[in-house]
Write a structure and sequence with these properties.
The complex is a heterotrimer of chains A (130), B (151) and C (608). Chain B is α+β, with helices and mostly antiparallel strands and 151 residues long. Helix content of chain B is 44%, strand content 12%. Chain B folds into 2 domains: 4-59, no CATH class; 71-147, Glutaredoxin (3-Layer(aba) Sandwich), CATH 3.40.30. Chain B is built from 7 helices and 4 strands. Chain B has a 4-stranded mixed beta sheet with strand order 2-1-3-4, with helices on one face. Chain C has 608 residues and is an alpha/beta fold. The chains are: A alpha+beta (130), B alpha+beta (151), C alpha/beta (608).
Chain lengths: 130, 151, 608
């Protein structure tokens, strides 16, 4: 085990920022809710969640909260996810695949530009869970 | 009783008199009590007068000169437990086990002690059987707890 | 260290303090892990064990992050449903959430619950947020930055000045200003080539207090960091933590933390490249209350009998192995890093004129929300008992609160608006002590409480000085006599005389303060003493020798009950009667254990 320097302490803190952000409810750029009702799971919501987790890990994103909620009420368009950028109206994406959600992450969450071709609508009813 | 176990512990501390207390703590842990022979051994091999060894062994609550039962029942007598009736729990245990606090049942299955606060005040009144806590007790619940340990 | 941190969408913070562990927290953790695996969520959901969350009453506890969703009183049976509903499908489970007494709607979010809302966390800053067994998580929450600052950027005098300015006072009992103590030790001459020692007193002996245990279990690194800072300030290279024998979990977590700190070079030689050397050894106590007294503790550290000696000389001059020694308790040490990183001005802005910062109290006894709370100094008793503590169970009436353990006293309900700090408690006849707060209701007998504490101190008296050894024994026998209905009026005068002389003449703090519980109960609850002596009655019906148990025959047989439960539970066959018929207590056989009173579902057993 190497002896730490003051710099190393800082590095450890940087590295665990995601954990502290998550646990302490710190400032986050966006919250992505994947809808995980029975219908959602049946139509592949788990793949969407897994793809998001992998991507967030690979890109070392530390300020995006991933969460899930129950059925969004539009079973025919599952899997669905809602993206809420801090201070903006939520956007619902429908008929998702792993590839599509990666694109949403890239363009909307990181780039700030809504991917209109997958979006169901903007400013839909707010989910109060989580 | 194995003298080897005692020897191994005593040897570790050499003749460092200030380590007597630590040696006794290890012996208590190893045997569950401080056997007479072990105390003699400590005195002889660590070159500490037996009177000093014995005074340490009787001063601290962590030591016992009597062997304990297979299941060691400790009744917490902290303040929170007291105001929630621990004295009655202790007496109930004494009656159920047929022994007084500080003693061991003839079949060596249970021994009973009253102890200072175990720091689990949120669950008062509390007893510990071995390392397991039983909280929010009442006299009526005592027989059920003892049953789990073969009473 | 180089690989990327794994991402999880949920962290499940399982409380693994002693309270929850005894409520089977580890079984809950196991069940969670099993179920998470079964639902293939192991790459999405992380289970973390934390130190004591504080709300011990409601254990076992689980907090879900992000969102701060608080689940309580979990059983293994609840877990499959919880995992499927909340963690898989995102529907938080209401029935496992906390519902305040007298209310119907559960409160999902931890920070909205009254118990947590009024608290300000400094010493307990990391509780529930980190895994105490992972040093990286402590570092992530700015751990060891204060130490780095103290070692690399501050002079010993500068550190002492900062602590003095902060107004921090010892959290172990007497409330001595910490910075002043450090300065004494720094300036005291050592007769052994400059050797000085530093000790953390973790021999938390006051029954009803468990904050030190909780800090060592939940955040051991905060104590280690505080000690390194203190070591630099006073110029010590060796430190000791004295931990109570009764705290196995605290011992093992502390030992692990020391090992990790050593491996990272945060203890040992040349810490963080500053050239400063310091290491810490752990000493396990052997179960003697008096060892919380600092001179007795030092004797015990030296392997001798834990008997106190007269002060002066104080340990600051002549302590361990006759060298200058600085002793502070666990909670005090845990405050130090925050003061160094956030500054004395910030710290001293919290609290009252003479008592700065926060204090951790263990709120126990006859109170709805038992647990560990950290509040700013100056908060009123009322706020603690009614807002945070949720009031007294079963609609009973609040009578008094006991603070300061066997050295403290009882504060009556008339003083419920008292703002709590070192001075106000002393003025009220009690003391801060280590922070135990035992709440008493109308069913608590104050004479019995006084007798309880005297039996404690009498038993724990080391026997070295006569006032304590003999005096407490005499006081105890008078109190016992009163609770048995054999007291006389002269007893009260005798009791007070004894109390005053023990107070003046005992050798150490244990003896000096032993009469306090008696004096305060006599001051505030004289009528209870008098009722015991004159009427031979215990108004709270606690003193059993004064109770007579009878079965109200009408209530017993009403609606054809006569359920026989009391008879079946009676230890001495003192209850006669058959099923369906009225029961009766044979007084000659009754040992007044009260089990009939406890088990009767129809309130047919009365105490007279």
């Amino acid at each position: 085990m190497p002896k730490l320097t003051v710099e190393d302490l800082k590095k450890i803190r940087e590295k665990t920022r995601r954990t502290t952000m998550l646990r302490e409810g710190g400032e986050h750029r966006a919250k992505i809710t994947v809808h995980m009702g029975t219908c959602g799971i049946a139509s592949g919501a788990r793949d969407i969640m897994n793809a998001l987790i992998k991507e967030i890990e690979a890109r070392d994103i530390t300020d995006v909260i991933l969460t899930n909620s129950g059925c969004a009420g539009l079973c025919s368009r599952e899997p669905m996810a809602t993206v809420e950028m801090a201070g903006k109206a939520p956007v619902k994406y429908v008929d998702l695949t792993a590839e599509k959600i990666k694109e949403v992450l890239e363009k909307h969450v990181l780039g700030g530009k809504i991917v209109e071709s997958y979006a169901l609508g903007i400013g839909s009813e707010k989910t109060d869970l989580s | 009783m194995s003298d080897q176990r005692t020897s191994a512990i005593v040897e570790k501390y050499g003749t460092d008199e200030s380590a007597t207390l630590s040696a006794l703590q290890d012996l208590q842990e190893e045997h569950g009590y401080l056997p007479r022979e072990a105390l003699l051994d400590v005195s002889k091999r660590m070159e500490v007068p037996l009177s000093r060894v014995l005074s340490l062994a009787t001063f601290f609550n962590a030591f016992s000169l009597k062997p304990k039962g297979k299941h060691h029942v400790n009744v917490c007598m902290g303040t929170a437990c007291h105001v929630r009736g621990s004295q009655l729990i202790l007496e109930k245990l004494e009656r159920e086990l047929g022994i007084k606090s500080g003693d061991t049942t003839p079949d060596r299955n249970f021994s009973l002690d009253a102890v200072r606060c175990v720091g689990c005040c949120g669950l008062a009144p509390v007893i510990m059987v071995g390392d397991t806590f039983h909280g929010k007790l009442s006299q009526a619940k005592v027989p059920g707890v003892l049953k789990k340990y073969g009473k | 260290m180089e690989e990327k941190e794994k991402a999880y969408r949920l962290h499940l913070m399982v409380c693994a303090g002693t309270g929850c562990v005894s409520n089977h927290a580890f079984e809950i953790k196991g069940a969670l892990e099993k179920e998470i695996k079964k639902q293939s969520l192991e790459n999405e959901v992380l289970v973390v064990t934390t130190g004591c969350n504080g709300f011990c009453e409601r254990g076992p506890l689980l907090v879900v992050q992000p969102g701060n969703i608080f689940y309580q009183q979990l059983t293994e049976k609840d877990i499959p449903h919880l995992v499927e509903e909340h963690f898989l499908k995102g529907r938080p489970v209401q029935k496992l959430m906390y519902t305040p007494p007298k209310e119907k709607t559960p409160i999902p979010v931890l920070s909205d619950i009254d118990f947590f809302k009024g608290q300000v966390l400094i010493a307990l800053r990391n509780r529930g947020l980190i895994d105490p067994e992972k040093i990286e998580e402590y570092i992530a929450r700015d751990g060891y930055t204060a130490m780095a600052k103290a070692l690399n950027e501050m002079t010993p005098e500068g550190i002492i000045e900062e602590i003095k300015k902060s107004g921090l006072r010892g959290r172990g009992g007497a409330g001595f200003p910490t910075g002043v103590k450090w300065e004494y030790v720094r300036n005291a001459p050592s007769t052994n080539g400059g050797v000085k020692y530093l000790v953390c007193n973790g021999d938390e002996g006051d029954p009803g207090a468990f904050m030190d245990r909780s800090i060592l279990e939940a955040d051991p690194h905060s104590v280690i960091e505080g000690m390194v800072i203190g070591a630099k300030a006073i110029g010590a290279s060796e430190g000791f933590v004295y931990v109570r024998n009764e705290y196995p979990l605290a011992l093992s977590r502390l030992n692990l933390a020391l090992k990790q700190a050593r491996e990272y070079g945060l203890l040992g030689k040349d810490i963080l490249g500053s050239g400063f050397n310091f290491d810490i050894k752990v000493h396990r106590g052997a179960g003697a209350f008096v060892c919380g007294e600092e001179t007795a503790l030092l004797h015990s550290l030296e392997g001798r009998l834990g008997e106190p000696r007269p002060r002066p000389p104080y340990p600051a001059e002549k302590g361990l192995r006759d060298q200058p020694t600085c002793i502070n308790n666990v909670e005090t040490w845990a405050n130090v890093p925050v003061i160094i990183s956030r500054g004395a001005n910030w710290y001293s802005s919290i609290g009252t004129k003479t008592s700065k910062g926060t204090k951790v109290f263990s709120l126990v006894g006859k109170i709805n929300n038992t647990g560990l709370v950290e509040v700013p100094m100056g908060i009123s008793l009322k706020e603690i008992i009614y807002n945070i503590g949720g009031g007294i169970p079963e609609g009973k009436e609040f009578k008094a609160v006991q603070t300061g353990g066997p050295s403290g006293g009882c504060i009556p309900k008339e003083k419920i608006d008292l703002p709590i700090d070192f001075e106000s408690l002393t003025e009220a006849g009690s003391m801060m002590g280590s922070g135990g707060m035992v709440v008493m209701d109308e069913d608590t007998c104050m004479v019995d409480v006084a007798r309880y504490f005297l039996s404690f101190t009498q038993d724990e008296s080391c026997g070295k000085c006569t006032p304590c050894r003999e005096g407490t024994k005499a006081m105890l026998s008078i109190l016992t006599r009163i609770t048995e209905g054999k007291g006389t009026e002269g007893d009260l005068v005798l009791l007070r005389d004894l109390a005053e002389s023990i107070k003046d003449s005992a050798l150490c703090g244990l003896g000096n303060t032993a009469p306090n519980p008696v004096l305060t109960t006599m001051q505030y609850f004289m009528e209870e003493y008098e009722t015991h002596i004159k009427d031979k009655k215990c108004p709270a019906r606690v003193c059993r020798q004064l109770n007579t148990y009878i079965v109200d025959e009408n209530t017993c047989v009403k609606d054809g009950r006569g359920c026989d439960l009391c008879k079946r539970n009676c230890a001495t066959d003192a209850i006669l009667g058959e099923k369906g018929k009225a029961h009766r207590v044979v007084q000659e056989k009754c040992i007044k254990c009260g089990v009939c009173y406890d088990v009767c579902n129809f309130n047919a057993v009365k105490i007279e």
